[in-house]
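INFO  loader      accepted 1 record
INFO  loader      residues=152
INFO  predictor   begin
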Amino acid sequence: MASRLLWTGVAALLVASLGAAPRPARATDYKSIGPDPAILYDAPTTRGRKLFVAPRGMPVEVVVAQSDWIRVRDQSGDLSWVERKALVDKRTVIATAGAAAHAGPDETTPVVFRVQQGVVLDLLEAPSNGYAHVRHRDGASGWLRLTDLWGT
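INFO  predictor   done
INFO  writer      dumping tokens
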């Protein structure tokens, strides 16, 4: 009984030391790295080990949100922490394969551009019917299959 009380106290102290209690993210909540590259850490503190420098625009899945820190998952499935201020609501996606973007959400429409694997694209509309309306950084826009994208 005493050990359970001790562990309960330790857990409460840990949560209190991290600030506000973690809040699970909504189902599949995505954000993007803001206009500047961001450092991803192994813990919710700048004293944590630096894991990766995320390029601007990179989409990440929000896993847990705390007051100033967000636990995120990247395209490869790796988990890390990033400062909340480094994220923006603007949605981007990553091409997971080379693919053809079409003029409409149907493969029978003309191809308007081709994208290579790893290219970051702006998400213009919420995905529907298996397609996402995206824009390439050169300004071309089109529809890509969801199976060719990560971050939707």
